[in-house]
């Protein structure tokens, strides 16, 4: 990989040193994204770990704050959420994360799903827009989420949704559709045209690079990251390699590299090191080389994109540095 590289989508939920030592060796910095996920540590604990690692490894770690939707029906919830956001920003967060529990879990007093375009979020988004605060959003899911397991295009989705059936929408036809998730997200963006926004996971449009391209064209203040969706680009490269490469070249200034590795303590120090090393190398080979490659997520082989160095530098470093405010490394 190039040095320096920024892995701009990870969840560093433990203070283990193995991953950091590997990052120093490889010239990598991390963006750790705090998220209101039920099986994660509390948001305060996630922030504490990120700040600890940032202090121990100067310049190597930045973090994204978030807020809880607990007590949504309470009349003071908006004030509480804004205070939580402001505290995270005061502690050094590079932006604010919005997660898929909005749209796929949260319900109002009538039992209806609360979508991100709900008016109760207006004051929060207005504050974020008015103050130039970056928002990153994982809203909705891959389109595969609404398909049976045997019809999904990549095994990573098949594995995730088999382990997390509560998020496998094919099993929950009473939940909002994929189209409603995307519509609500885009309605929110239309309402806040100056909002700085990163649509995570190829903006949940990973199934078609044309769809991602159209979204980026529609919302010029947005970026998107590649985290946990590179296999979808690889899958599409088996069908139309030229289209995938053209997509990357055309949007080289708006794509951000990330792996979405979750460091939750389930892997040993050496195992988490190998996981990062293997992902970084396989992803680098896809973007930088013209080799014939394979991926564990599907059967067919594909060719690497063989991108120019200037494009690789943007995807693996510069775009994340500018978007998330990373300072140049001094060591």
CATH class: Alpha Beta
SS summary, helix count: 13
> Strand arrangement, largest sheet?
4-5-6-7-8
SSE ordering: EHEHEHEHHEHHEHHEHHEEHEEH
What is the structural class?
alpha/beta
Outline: globular
At the fold tier of CATH, the topology name is TIM Barrel
| Percentage of residues in DSSP E strands | 5-15%
Query: Considering DSSP H and I runs of 4 or more, what fraction of the residues is helical?
Result: 40-55%
CATH homolog superfamily: Metal-dependent hydrolases
How would a textbook summarize the main sheet? Answer: 5 strands, parallel
Compile the SSE list and pairings.
Elements: E1 5-12, H1 18-26, E2 28-33, H2 43-56, E3 61-64, H3 77-90, E4 96-98, H4 101-104, H5 122-130, E5 135-137, H6 155-163, H7 178-191, E6 197-199, H8 200-203, H9 209-218, E7 222-225, H10 230-237, H11 241-250, E8 255-256, E9 261-263, H12 269-288, E10 292-293, E11 302-303, H13 309-324
Parallel strand pairs: 1-2, 1-9, 2-3, 4-5, 5-6, 6-7, 7-8
Antiparallel strand pairs: 10-11
């Amino acid at each position: 990989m190039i040095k320096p590289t920024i892995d701009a989508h990870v969840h560093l939920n433990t203070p283990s040193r193995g991953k950091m030592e590997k990052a120093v060796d490889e010239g990598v910095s991390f963006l750790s994204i705090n998220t209101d996920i039920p099986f994660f540590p509390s948001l305060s604990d996630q922030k504490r770990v990120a700040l600890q690692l940032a202090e121990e490894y100067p310049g190597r770690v930045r973090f994204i704050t978030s807020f809880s939707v607990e007590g949504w029906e309470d009349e003071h919830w908006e004030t509480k959420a804004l205070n939580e956001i402001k505290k995270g920003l005061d502690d050094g967060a590079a932006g604010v994360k919005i997660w898929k529990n909005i749209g796929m879990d949260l319900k109002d007093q009538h039992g209806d799903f609360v979508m991100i375009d709900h008016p109760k979020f207006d004051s929060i988004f207005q504050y974020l827009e008015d103050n130039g605060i970056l928002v990153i959003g994982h809203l909705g899911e891959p389109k595969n989420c609404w398909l049976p397991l045997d019809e999904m295009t990549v095994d990573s989705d098949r594995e995730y949704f088999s382990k997390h059936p509560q998020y496998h929408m094919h099993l929950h036809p009473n939940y909002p559709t994929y189209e409603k998730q995307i519509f609500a997200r885009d309605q929110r963006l239309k309402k806040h045209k100056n909002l700085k926004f990163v649509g995570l996971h190829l903006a949940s449009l990973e199934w078609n690079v044309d769809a991602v391209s159209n979204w980026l064209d529609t919302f010029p203040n947005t970026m998107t990251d590649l985290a946990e969706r590179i296999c979808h680009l690889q899958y599409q490269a088996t069908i139309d390699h030229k289209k995938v490469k053209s997509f990357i070249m055309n949007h080289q200034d708006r794509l951000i590299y990330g792996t979405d590795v979750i460091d939750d303590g389930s892997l040993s120090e050496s195992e988490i090191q190998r996981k990062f090393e293997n992902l970084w190398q396989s992803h680098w080979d896809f973007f930088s080389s013209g080799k014939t490659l394979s991926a564990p997520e599907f059967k067919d082989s594909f060719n690497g994109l063989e991108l120019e160095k200037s494009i690789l530098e943007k995807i693996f470093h510069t775009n994340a540095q500018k978007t998330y405010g990373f300072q140049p490394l001094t060591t």
